Structure formats: structure tokens, C-alpha cells
Amino acid sequence: MLNAILLSLAGLVGLAIGGELLVRGAVGIAQKLGISTLVTGLVIVGFATSMPEMVASVQAALEGSPGIAWGNIVGSNLANTLLILGATALVMPIALTGGGRRDAVVALIATIGLAALAYSQLGARWIGGALLVGIVSYIVWRYRYPGAAQEDDDDDDAPENGYVASALFAVGLAVLVFSGQILVTGAIDLATLFGVSETAIGLTVVAFGTSLPELAASVAAALRGKPGLAIGNVVGSNIYNILLIGGVTMSIAPFALPENLLGVQMGLLIASAVALLGLLWFAKSIGRVMGLILLAAFLGNVVFVFT
User: Where are the alpha helices (DSSP H) in the chain?
Assistant: First the structure.
């Protein structure tokens, strides 16, 4: 038992550290190459912050544990919307200026598509390919139609030296891969020891660990007075999780989504996507009261999963 716990903890910490190094390196490389803030945010940072989820889900799929792989995807999106936005709003209420509405619509459509895929119990590589086409189409669309001018989302702490940025990126990627392997091993052992499903571990322990980079980034953005970055980080990550990570996972291991993701989890996932879209369209801010409500929903679901 101790070995499984230590492996899981080491994997969680490693994912957090690796994700941070990878993001800083990626932003530094993009700035050094003169890539625009929009492309940096959508492609470089979006991909980099999704790497912990990617590594964990792909590793789980390769080891024949689709419950952990898809549980991580669903759980990460729940953590993004409920835990990360809730915690961020408690630290600093998030002012909503109208940005991210179109992306929230895309996130809702992707969520409904994932639910339809789950209920159909279909699994095939062409589905994975379709999801990957979806993420490429989204990136191209946002590049061609950026909308209103965005706030400056450059990372003030990004390394200026290109060699340093490249080294951070490489080290971060290596740490992520290694950490993802030991986290999945520990998670499978924990599921066996405690007699719970691998999906439950994926929804909670693995999803929390892979969402740590987004949590740190959103809280930091709110404290720096960049609410658009905090919202964009959450919405963008939700889109990448379903289309990019789901697409890669389905392409590698073309199995149907676990049946125990149906019902409450898919219902809560859709409800959270609808709630986020509603907040962006009709609310002026996400205050501490709403933050508490979001956190309560997340913690309540964790209790439900294990009981």
C-alpha cells in the first residue's frame, strides 16, 4: 500500500513540476521566435498545459486501463470548471469582460459530442481521427478569426534566452513522461488495493494531479489582474482535453468509453459546461459565493465517486 501511495504522490508532484517547466519553456521559445500572443496561447500554451493529461491518459491506454484514461479526461474537465474556477474566484473574484464566449460554445459542443460518444459505446480509430481534425479546425478558426483584441497574456517570467527555454521544455517533457508512468502505475495499484474502479481513480486522483498546472496558472493570472487568461486557460484546456487528448487516446486504444462514466458524471460534465457558458454570457463576474458553489459541487462529486 505504501509503495502505491508513494508512487502516486511522486507522480502528482512530478506532473506539476514538469508541466510548469514545459509551459515556461514553450512560452519562452514562442517569444524568442516572435510568434504572436494569440498563436502562443492557443497552440503553444494550450498544448503544453494539456501535456500532463495527455501523458497520463495515453500511458493508461497503452497499459490497458481505459478507465483511468477517460476518467482522467472527464475528471480534468470537471476539475477545470468546478475546482480551478472555484478556487480562483475564492482567491480573487474573476471579472468577466465578454471574452471566451465563442470558445465556451465550442467547449459545450465538444462536451455534448463526448457524451454522445460515451452513450453510443462506440470505439474506433476513425473517431479518434475525427476528434483530432476537430482540434486542428478549432486552432485554424481561432487563428483566422481572433475576434476582439485580447489582453496581453505574455508570461512575465518566461525565460528570455532561447537555449534556456529549450532546455526547460526538454526537461519538463522528460519529467512529464516519467511522472505519468509512475502515476498510472500507482493509480492502478491504489484502485486494486481499495477495491474501487480505475475510472474512479482517474476521475479524482489522476485528474487532480494533471490539473495542477492549470490551477496554478489560473490563480496566478487572477492575482496579476488578468481574468481573461484565467478564463481562457480553463475553457481552452477543456477543449484540448476532449478533442486532442480524447482523439489521441481513441486513436491509440480504440475502445468504448467506460460505462461507469455514464449517468452522473456525464450529466455533471454537461451541466458544468452549460453553467460556464451561462456565466460568460450573463454574469459580470465570478465572485466568492459562486466560487464556493463550484467547489462544493466538485467536492460533492468526489464523495459520490468513492461512495
Answer: 2-32, 37-39, 46-49, 51-62, 66-78, 85-91, 101-120, 125-144, 162-194, 198-201, 207-210, 212-223, 227-240, 246-252, 264-282, 288-306
